[in-house]
């Protein structure tokens, strides 16, 4: 025999509740729900269980909707709290507002500076790990995706976008990214910035430029050396084309094309 406080504590929805009850019943195991005073081994137990579990599911839906409504009303008035559990550079005060963590802020600033000096996030990751720089949980292992996310995080410029994700199903509690399904809230001058807005915007442009570069060159990796080689080759080709064909007395004379950088001694 299994004793549980209530139907809502036993399962999230009516279907799951009935399936679990039937499986246990086949094994000869009954369930007693104290709040509803139901014993599943009784003849009338399953009928009552179906009705009451449906009511419990509807109650869960109502609680979830009321909670969501309250959160959105607070967002509309600019009231919100942020977690810094996996967020480098800030702590929270007693009111839940973000305050700069000076030691971590130096790491954030360095990330932006290194990226803007044309280092890749993979290269920065290796540098951070080699130097033993600690991340948000105190470890020295870094993820490139996490560094890239930090470069795009508007909170470092002192602003905040609220409701980037939302709970799509009150039963499974599954959260999904908000792609316009519900309203977002943009909070300007929400807290002290670590990165100046002008620098943050320039980094976003650099991210877009690199993405475009990868698409145009059909590659999934970016490096400043590779980019400079491609620019040099393009320059060499243009130089060779200019000197390849020369008209001489109405006839076309073919000359040997040479790289302009080789002529200048810089190849």
Structural class: alpha+beta
**Strands of the biggest beta sheet: in what spatial order?**
1-2-3
Which sheet architecture does the biggest sheet show?
3 strands, mixed
CATH hierarchy class name of the largest domain: Alpha Beta
CATH topology descriptor of the largest domain: Hect, E3 ligase catalytic domain fold
Number of strands: 11
The percentage helix is 40-55%
Distance between the termini: 83 Å
Q: For this structure, what is the CATH homologous superfamily of the largest domain?
A: Putative Large Serine Recombinase, Chain B, Domain 2
What gyration radius follows from the Cα positions, in whole Å?
Answer: 31 Å
- Which outline best applies? elongated
Report the order of strands and helices.
EHHEEHEEHHHEEEEHHEEH
Low-confidence stretches: 238-267
Which second-level CATH architecture of the largest domain applies? Alpha-Beta Complex
Fraction in beta strands: 5-15%
Q: How many H/I helices? A: 9
User: Number of domains in the coordinates?
Assistant: 3
Care to describe what's here?
The structure is a single chain. This protein is of the alpha+beta class. The chain folds into three domains: 2-71, Resolvase, N-terminal catalytic domain (Rossmann fold), CATH 3.40.50.1390; 90-214, Hect, E3 ligase catalytic domain fold (Alpha-Beta Complex); 228-263, no CATH class. Helices cover 49% and strands 13% of the residues. The chain is built from nine helices and eleven strands. The strands form five sheets. It has a three-stranded mixed sheet with strand order 1-2-3. The chain has a two-stranded antiparallel ribbon with strand order 4-5. Strand 2 and strand 3 (38-39) form a beta hairpin. Helix 2 runs antiparallel to helix 3 (45-76) and helix 5 packs across helix 6. The protein is elongated, with a radius of gyration of 31 Å.
């Amino acid at each position: 025999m299994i004793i549980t406080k209530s139907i809502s504590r036993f399962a999230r929805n009516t279907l799951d509740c009935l399936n679990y009850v039937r499986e246990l019943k086949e094994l000869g195991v009954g369930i007693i729900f104290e709040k509803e005073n139901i014993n599943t081994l009784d003849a009338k137990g399953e009928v009552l269980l179906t009705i009451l579990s449906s009511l419990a599911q509807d109650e869960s839906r109502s609680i979830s909707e009321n909670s969501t409504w309250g959160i959105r009303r607070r967002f509309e008035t600019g009231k919100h709290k942020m977690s810094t559990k996996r967020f480098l550079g800030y702590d929270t005060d007693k009111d839940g507002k973000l305050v700069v963590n000076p030691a971590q802020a130096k790491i954030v600033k360095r990330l932006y500076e290194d990226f803007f000096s044309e280092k890749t996030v993979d290269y920065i990751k290796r540098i951070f790990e080699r130097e033993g720089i600690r991340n948000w949980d105190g470890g020295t292992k870094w993820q490139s995706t996490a560094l890239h996310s930090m470069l795009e995080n508007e909170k470092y410029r002192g602003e905040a976008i609220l409701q980037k994700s939302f709970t799509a199903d009150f039963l499974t509690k599954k959260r999904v990214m908000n792609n316009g399904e519900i309203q977002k809230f943009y909070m300007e001058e929400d807290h002290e910035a670590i990165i100046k807005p002008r620098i943050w915007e320039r980094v976003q442009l650099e991210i877009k430029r690199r993405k475009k570069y990868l698409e145009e060159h059909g590659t999934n990796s970016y490096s400043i050396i590779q980019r400079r080689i491609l620019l040099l080759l393009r320059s060499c080709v243009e130089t060779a084309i200019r000197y390849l064909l020369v008209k001489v007395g109405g006839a076309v004379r073919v000359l040997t094309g040479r790289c302009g950088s080789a002529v200048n001694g810089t190849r």
